[in-house]
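Teaching assistant here, posting this on the class forum so everyone can see the example we discussed in section. The complex has two components, and the goal was to see what a joint structure prediction looks like when all of them are supplied at once.
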Amino acid sequence: MASTASPGKTAAALVAGWVLPGAGHAVLGRLRRGIVFFVLVMGSFGLGLAHDGRLALYSSREWLLTSMQVLANVGVGPADTIARVSVYGEPAYVRKDGDPDPKQEARIETFRVRWRSALSIYGTAYLWTAGLMNLLLLLDVWDLSRGRKD
Amino acid sequence: MASHFVHLLLYSAIVAAFFSVLTRRERREQLRFGGLVFFGMTGGVLVLAYLMYPFPR
């Protein structure tokens, strides 16, 4: 049976895994696997950004769908926030339709421009896949640290 | 890059590599499972595409 990690090490691995995809596995001593996961998750994320992937914005009009989309984006860690700052000019996660604030209008317009891009369907799939893969990796880190997996 | 087919290959390769490393430990097993996922995804999509071909857009 595989060994169990201490609660502190488990927490460190989970946080590291979210901050840097694959780092959770490295913390638990699976460095090579961690590097492979890093390349796959960040490769998918990079492809998503390169293909005008939509960085989802939460909207109260479609709260369930948009919150799941944001969750899929956020799964990849702080890289998502950095991407939002580069795309929207700020760490934007919410859109308020009808809000006269010029910042909100600019945010929605940026979102629409990416939406209209012919490449956006590919890019969005890559972005969501990257985030969901990293969330699965966190579950794997949890299993490894609990000794349920080798 | 706007080719559906290239993205199909690329996306399938990423997903196949990810799940093979995540769920299999032996190199041989990883290659077998990864190949199965990759060809399952690409083959499945191509079969589906041919089945849909007679239908109007």
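For the discussion questions: Chain A touches chain B through 20 residues (CB under 8 Å). The radius of gyration of chain A is 17 Å. Think about how each of these relates to the inputs above.
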